[in-house]
Specification:
Rossmann fold, single chain, Helicase, Ruva Protein, domain 3, 2 domains, about 45% helix, two-stranded antiparallel sheet
């Protein structure tokens, strides 16, 4: 591609991504730190990708999602997953009306722009499947009638990494449908000090104003698609994914006994999409290798299966991804 074309794309993206700063300023009124999590939420928004958040309670996962939805003037619903939840509690059902002697459709909480599936692994498999079908098809069927879900539509599911009693872990095939798996860590010391002060001074009552409309997000998605990705970057992404499937071919024979299965084709697709969204957030019209490396762990960590040998040696997906990134040649 000619440098003139890239420059034109660069200028357009710089213009189209101006609202990102407004969003960051507005969310920072409520959320202290956790920039990595907010950035990943925006990547999901820009790429139609759903996100699995893993972190301990009290790390502002719910607050971050609710704040972002308010800043975007979008509809937000929170669903608390419990063992007695039914699919109808999520997608809706037919309700009999004695006055008209007819059944009417009662839509469930899945009809919103932002869905927070809190502790998704506490509900049985059929409930998880009902939500994941809505995520994939972006529509639900109630009583023989099909309803399209609102756009933008983003599901953010959370799970507690330490409390496993009474849970139904997500099968690998369902986990693969999430674009990103984001690990939410503790805030920095200075950030936590600020959080404590805000709560003591009632600063948590700050009001978030809608600064972006859902239509702006839909336009931004089209801009993300226009971001230039060189063939060398494309091949770099393919090499990263293939190195998790056939590590021996990339000089990583010592990883073969540790990996049960590598990244699926969804890994390649989502890594490319996320890298473009990362460039958009950086207000750049082209993808660089650092964009790929920055988001790689979030795209890949739930798509690599470990063997019993890896678990016995306490080898994690993070370590495997680090070894792959250190070995695969950067363009």
């Amino acid at each position: 591609m000619q440098s003139l074309d890239i420059e034109a794309i660069n200028q357009q993206i710089y213009h189209d991504s101006a609202f990102i700063e407004q969003l960051n300023d507005e969310t920072s009124k409520i959320i202290v730190g956790q920039k990595n999590m907010i950035e990943r939420l925006m990547i999901g928004l820009l790429t139609k990708g759903h996100i699995l958040l893993e972190g301990l309670p009290g790390l502002a996962k719910t607050l971050a999602i609710k704040t972002l939805s308010t800043a975007i003037n979008a509809k937000f619903h929170r669903i608390q997953f419990t063992p007695d939840l039914l699919p109808a509690d999520i997608i809706g059902t037919m309700v009999y009306n004695p006055g008209t002697t007819k059944f009417a459709v009662h839509k469930g909480p899945v009809f919103a722009n932002f869905i927070l599936a809190d502790e998704i692994n506490r509900a049985p498999a059929k409930v998880q499947s009902a939500l994941l079908e809505a995520m994939q098809e972006r529509q639900v069927t109630i009583g023989g009638e099909t309803f399209k879900l609102e756009d933008p539509f983003l599901v953010l599911a959370t799970q507690n990494p330490i409390e496993q009693e009474g849970t139904y872990p997500l099968p690998e095939a369902q986990t693969d449908r999430f674009m990103l798996k984001v690990k939410v860590g503790y805030p920095e010391k200075e950030d936590e000090l600020q959080i404590m002060r805000r709560n003591l001074n009632d600063a948590v009552d700050a009001v978030v104003q809608p600064v972006v409309q859902p239509a702006d997000i839909l336009r931004a998605r089209k801009s993300v698609q226009k971001i230039y990705m060189d063939e060398k970057i494309e091949r770099y992404i393919i090499d990263i994914v293939f190195a998790t499937r056939n590590p021996k071919d990339y000089g990583l024979a010592n990883l073969e006994p540790l990996i049960n299965y590598g990244g699926s084709p969804r890994a390649s697709i989502n890594l490319a999409l996320a890298a473009k969204a990362m460039a958009f957030l950086r207000r750049r019209g082209y993808v660089i290798p650092e964009d790929v490396r920055n988001i790689c762990h979030d795209v890949m960590r739930h798509r690599i299966g470990l063997t019993y040998e890896a678990e016995a040696e306490n080898v994690t997906q993070e370590e495997i991804i680090n070894r792959v990134l250190n070995k695969v040649e950067v363009p």
